[in-house]
Amino acid sequence: MTRVFSGVKPTGHLTLGNYLGALRQWAETDQHRADSLFCVVDLHALTVDHDPARVRRLSRQAATLLLAAGLDPERCTVFVQSHVDEHARLSYLLECVATDGEMRRMIQYKEKSAREQVRGGSVRLSLLTYPALMAADILAYDTDEVPVGEDQTQHVELARDLAVRFNHRYGQTFTVPKATSPKVAARVMNLQDPTSKMGKSDDTGPGIVYLLDEPEAVRKKVMRAVTDSGQDVVHDRAARPGVTNLLEILAACAGGDPEDLAASYSSYGALKKDTAEAVVEVLRPVQERHRELCADPGYLEQVLRAGAEKARTMARPTVDAAYRAIGLLPA
Ligand code: TYM
């Protein structure tokens, strides 16, 4: 059976981008067709300035939202990364296989480290080595497929390269994974700046639709989305990024093809109104389940405990095999 692994980082409140680019596929497709694991990757949240209490709160919230989005613990394994030591154990071995140059080439590292320096802060070493930990997340589980939004495909490519290199040097140990992304909305853009990704860790609130935004807030954000200077509705990411983003969101939420939808609108106002309502409808059931789950925190604890136990037994043999293959003495 195909093995699927993916994760979400608790560095902010989850967004519509997280949902359309990743969570929805996990819930609607992956958990039904594959042996799948979904993880709140909390160790990754420590790579930038963080408040410990906030990371704990966001980790719990992200896990609740994974269930609210429809992940069923009877069908898939839901857990928290730091509960399973194998991720950190394997990450170190992969740092010994990766090169400094390939880590520095990662787009996300370049962007985030540049931003950190502009703020006058220092760049944590873990921000540079982040992709080794992400590769460990994936490779520890003999993963075949990694469903992610477009912004993560470069990291999954690196995980592939590391798996191939390790196998070549030290003998067949890892399954070589590949990234999969949804056909539409694989890169949802910021509504206020449609040339940059809608990211949960950004500070531009009005451009980001959060999964737990009230319907009125969603409507306001979509209606105020920055559009382009022309008047006609055209799907063209380079020339008309604002309108194209709305068409992609509408297509992902209400169905249809973004290019066909473009032909059925003659004004930005109508497009925005329909997009806002489509987003509200998509978020409604997630928010309802989220409310129910919050009323029973014991259930979440129990799911995460069982998930970690299962994940541990799955990861340990592969990570132990990697330790032996690379030359470490068995304990
Ligand atoms: P993270 O937490 O930034 O995002 C979680 C998932 O949501 C997708 N995503 C988007 N998709 C479309 N449009 C957007 N605007 C958008 N923003 C986010 C991401 O592509 C991702 O699939 N490094 C990862 C977490 C991670 C991981 C892993 C993922 C750690 N280890 C192992 C897969 C496998 C990250 O920061 O995702």
UniProtKB/TrEMBL annotation:
<dbReference type="GO" id="GO:0004830">
    <property type="term" value="F:tryptophan-tRNA ligase activity"/>
</dbReference>
<dbReference type="InterPro" id="IPR050203">
    <property type="entry name" value="Trp-tRNA_synthetase"/>
</dbReference>
<dbReference type="InterPro" id="IPR001412">
    <property type="entry name" value="aa-tRNA-synth_I_CS"/>
</dbReference>
<dbReference type="InterPro" id="IPR014729">
    <property type="entry name" value="Rossmann-like_a/b/a_fold"/>
</dbReference>
<comment type="similarity">
    <text>Belongs to the class-I aminoacyl-tRNA synthetase family.</text>
</comment>
<keyword id="KW-0547">Nucleotide-binding</keyword>
<feature type="binding site">
    <location>
        <position position="188"/>
    </location>
    <ligand>
        <name>ATP</name>
    </ligand>
</feature>
<dbReference type="Pfam" id="PF00579">
    <property type="entry name" value="tRNA-synt_1b"/>
</dbReference>
<keyword id="KW-0067">ATP-binding</keyword>
<feature type="binding site">
    <location>
        <begin position="9"/>
        <end position="11"/>
    </location>
    <ligand>
        <name>ATP</name>
    </ligand>
</feature>
<feature type="binding site">
    <location>
        <begin position="17"/>
        <end position="18"/>
    </location>
    <ligand>
        <name>ATP</name>
    </ligand>
</feature>
<keyword id="KW-0030">Aminoacyl-tRNA synthetase</keyword>
<keyword id="KW-0648">Protein biosynthesis</keyword>
<comment type="subunit">
    <text>Homodimer.</text>
</comment>
<feature type="binding site">
    <location>
        <position position="137"/>
    </location>
    <ligand>
        <name>L-tryptophan</name>
    </ligand>
</feature>
<keyword id="KW-0436">Ligase</keyword>
<dbReference type="InterPro" id="IPR002305">
    <property type="entry name" value="aa-tRNA-synth_Ic"/>
</dbReference>
<keyword id="KW-0963">Cytoplasm</keyword>
<dbReference type="InterPro" id="IPR024109">
    <property type="entry name" value="Trp-tRNA-ligase_bac-type"/>
</dbReference>
<feature type="short sequence motif" description="'HIGH' region">
    <location>
        <begin position="10"/>
        <end position="18"/>
    </location>
</feature>
<feature type="binding site">
    <location>
        <begin position="149"/>
        <end position="151"/>
    </location>
    <ligand>
        <name>ATP</name>
    </ligand>
</feature>
<dbReference type="InterPro" id="IPR002306">
    <property type="entry name" value="Trp-tRNA-ligase"/>
</dbReference>
<protein>
    <recommendedName>
        <fullName>Tryptophan--tRNA ligase</fullName>
        <ecNumber>6.1.1.2</ecNumber>
    </recommendedName>
</protein>
<feature type="short sequence motif" description="'KMSKS' region">
    <location>
        <begin position="197"/>
        <end position="201"/>
    </location>
</feature>
<feature type="binding site">
    <location>
        <begin position="197"/>
        <end position="201"/>
    </location>
    <ligand>
        <name>ATP</name>
    </ligand>
</feature>
<comment type="function">
    <text>Catalyzes the attachment of tryptophan to tRNA(Trp).</text>
</comment>
